[in-house]
Amino acid sequence: MADNFSIAVENLIRKVPAGWLNSACEALRDFSSAASAEFVLQHLPGTNNADLSFLMTEVVRCALGKMSWEALSWSIRTAYTTYHRCQAEQHIEFLWGGPAPASGIPARRIDQALYDLIARAKHKILLVTFAATQIGRLTCELRRAAQRGVKVRMILECEQSSEGQLSHDAMKAFPQALIDAAEVYYWPVEKRQRNQSGRPAKLHAKLAIVDNTALVSSANLTADAFSRNLEVGVKVTNSEFLRSAKSYFEFLIFDGTLCKVV
C-alpha cells in the first residue's frame, strides 16, 4: 500500500492546481471517517480536468481503509508543500546567446541573467572566465555591487600564464578601481600541466556564483560571447551544487593552485 499510495500522491501533486488542492483538502477534513470512497469522490470540488479526476481517484482508493480522510488531507497538503518548496530551491533555467530561440521556448540571454544577478547581489560574487573584453556594462554592475559592500572575487586567465593562448589579458578588461576593490586570482604557469606540444593548460572555465545562484555557460565575458556567438548556459539554484562549486575553488586557492594578484 505504501508504495502505491506514495506514487499516487506524487503523481497528483505534480499536476494539481493549488486552488483546487486547497478546496479538496478542506473538503476531506470535513468527511466522516466512515464515508465511502464513492461518497468522497462525489463530494470533492468539481473539475473539468479528466486527468486530475483520475489522479485524485487513485489517491482516494489507495488511502481507503488505511487512514481517515482528515489524515489523507494533511498527507496530501504536506507532500504538496514539500515538493514545491524543493522545486523552488532547485531551479534550473536555460540561457542562450547569439541566435534567438523560437518564441515558444522560455529562455533569457546569458548576459541579461548575469546582469540581473549582480544587480541583486547582497553578499558575494565569484566570476571565473578565460577571456574578458569590451564589458562596460558588466564592469559598471560589478562596481555598484562592490560599493554596496558585496565581496567580489574574480579568477581570470592571464596572457603571460597562457603563453600566448589568450590574445587579451582578461584582467586588463577591468578598471584598476575594480581590481583594487576585488580579490583577483590567477593560475601560475608553473602550476599547469603541458600537452605534448609543450603548451600549458588553459584556465577555460566560465562560471558565475552570485550569493545562492550559479550561472554556468560556454560564454566568456566578452561582447562577442554576449551578443554574437552561439552560446548556451544554465542558471542553477541548488544548495548541493553551489556547495560543491564554491568548495572546489576555495580548495584551489587554499592549496596554492590559484594565486592572488597583489
Describe the structure in your own words.
With 262 residues, the chain is α/β, with parallel strands linked by helices. Helix content is 46%, strand content 18%. It is built from 11 helices and 11 strands. It has helices spanning 2-13, 18-30, 37-43, 50-63, 69-89, 110-119, 136-147, 159-162, 176-181, 223-227, 239-254; strands spanning 91-97, 108-109, 124-129, 132-133, 151-156, 183-186, 207-210, 213-217, 221-222, 231-237, 259-260. It is elongated. The model has no long low-confidence stretch (mean pLDDT 91).
The coarse overall form would be: elongated
Looking at CATH, which topology of the largest domain would you report?
Endonuclease, Chain A
Q: On the 0-100 scale, what is the average pLDDT?
A: 91
Level-1 CATH class name of the largest domain: Alpha Beta
CATH superfamily (homologous) name of the largest domain: Endonuclease Chain A
For the secondary structure, the number of strands is 11
Low-confidence segments, given as residue ranges, are none
Strand content is 15-25%
What CATH architecture of the largest domain do you see?
A: 2-Layer Sandwich
Q: State the order of secondary-structure elements, H for helix, E for strand.
A: HHHHHEEHEEHEHHEEEEHEHE
**Radius of gyration computed on alpha carbons:** 26 Å
Q: Bin the helical content.
A: 40-55%
The quaternary structure here is: single chain
What is the end-to-end distance?
64 Å
- How many structural domains? 2
Helix-strand category = alpha/beta
Count of DSSP-assigned helices = 11
